Each structure stands twice: as C-alpha cells, then as structure tokens.
Amino acid sequence: MLTTLLSATDAHALRRLRALAALSEEERRAVSMAAEQSQHLRGSRDLIRAGQRTTGPLLVLAGWLGRVRLFSDGRRQILSFLVPGDVFQEPRTLEPVASSTVTALCDSVICPAPAAEDAGLRDAYAASAAMDEAYLLRQIARLGRMSAYERIHDWLSEMYERLSLAGCAGQDSFTMPLTQETLADALGLTSVHVNRTLQAMRRDGVLEWRGGTVRLKRAAGKPEASSSAAVPARVLPSRTAAAR
Predict the structure, then answer these.
(1) In whole angstroms, what is the distance from residue 17 CA to residue 152 CA?
(2) Does residue 7 register a pLDDT over 90?
(3) Domains of the chain, with CATH numbers?
C-alpha cells in the first residue's frame, strides 16, 4: 500500500480545504508545493509522542492517523482520527508540545501545512480547527452516553461525512483500513463487543463491511449526536454529491 501512496497528490487535501473556504490560485499552488515535501509513514508508526516538541502544523494527504493515549498496562484510547485534508499540530503556545501521541493507523502521507498568509487558508484552517473541536465533543458524547450500537453507527456516519469532504467516499460507502480491534480502542469497547454489534447491525440491514469497504445501507433508527451544527452547511455534501 505504501508504494501506491508514494504517488499520492494533494488532491484530497486540497478538495477539503476548498470545501471549507475559497482559496486563491496562489494558495492552491502553496498546497501543491507543500505536498512536494511529503513524509510517508508506515502503519503503526508513531509520528510524534505525547510531550515531545512539535515542529509546526501538518496536513494529512493520504491515509488515517490517530491521536492516541497509551496506558501503562498496554491499553490505548484513540482520542480522534486524522484523515485527508485534516490539519493538526497547530502551535498555540511559544513552545508547543504534543498533547497526545499521533500514530499512523495505516500507511499514510503527511506534509507541512502551508503558511496561512492570505484570507483563504486562514479561513480554511479556522474552520478546520472548529470542526476538530466539534468532533472531539462528539466523541465525548459517544463514549459517555451512547450504547455500543449507537457509538458504532454515529462514528461511521461521522467518518463518512468527513471523508466525503475530501472526495474519499462514494455515494453510500467508504474505504475503512481499520481492524475491529482499532475500532474498539476508539469507542471504549472490547473487540468481541464490536464484532457482536457489527453482526447485529448487518442483521438489521444498517451496514455492510466487506473487504475493507463500509457501506451504510440505511439509518439505524437510533438517536445520534451530530456535529453538523458546528460545520458550515455548504461543506456537508449529500451522499449523491459525494459520489461525483
């Protein structure tokens, strides 16, 4: 898979940034030039560990990364996910340090995020930061108040929404390079519980998960928390639009 990613372009990242704000031709070129400085990460490799000094904001070009909290007994909690077009490690202090470990969950490509010298990228980065906060709050709600069935469906719906912004999703499906064990680490469940819940969702006709592709077949009929209120309506594509 890494060989394929070696030829990755800035297309998906640029598409998401342009969905968040209008970028000038110069800003689009800046994103493309930044992509030429890409760094390729193999799955399971840590990009940075909690407490280390960060080098500046980064842009995800391909793959999936996770912000991870590791425990002394070997357990881990995936706090949030980073997918194409996401910007992270934005400095908020004079000597910024990583608040969590960032791990490549599959073969991934990142690059330095271009400087926001004009209004377009500034607006895109601001919108991205607001959405990142909304997704973190949504994760708290999932872990605190939802059943396993609701957690999985809400998380899959969120990832479909996010990947659609970058043009990485089909009309009702997206590629999911994660194992059930990884999903368990993200949703505070055991892998056995995840497996049983996915089987129930398949029986209910809610989804299919085959060969690394998740297809959302219909609504789960369960209450779900939505981050849409924090996201400008114009950047939330319908499933039909995402297929184009």
Answers:
(1) 27
(2) no
(3) 2-242 (2.60.120.10)
What are the C-alpha distances in Å from 95 to residues 54, 109, 126? 8, 25, 21
Res 78: pLDDT: 97
Q: What is the pLDDT of residue 220?
A: 55
The more confident residue out of 225 and 73 is 73
CA nearest neighbour of 56 among 14, 98, 86: 98
- Host H or E run for residue 67: strand 65-70
What is the rounded CA–CA span in Å between residue 76 and residue 70?
Answer: 4
Q: What span, in angstroms and rounded, lies between the C-alpha atoms of 161 and 170?
A: 11
CA distance 171 to 237: 10
Element (H, E) at 160: helix 148-165
Which pTM does this prediction carry?
A: 0.85
> Considering only CA atoms, which of 127, 130, 4, 123 is closest in space to residue 61?
4
Give the integer Cα–Cα distance in Å for 126 and 129: 5
The phi-psi region of residue 210 (left if phi > 0; otherwise alpha if psi is between -120 and 50; otherwise beta) is beta
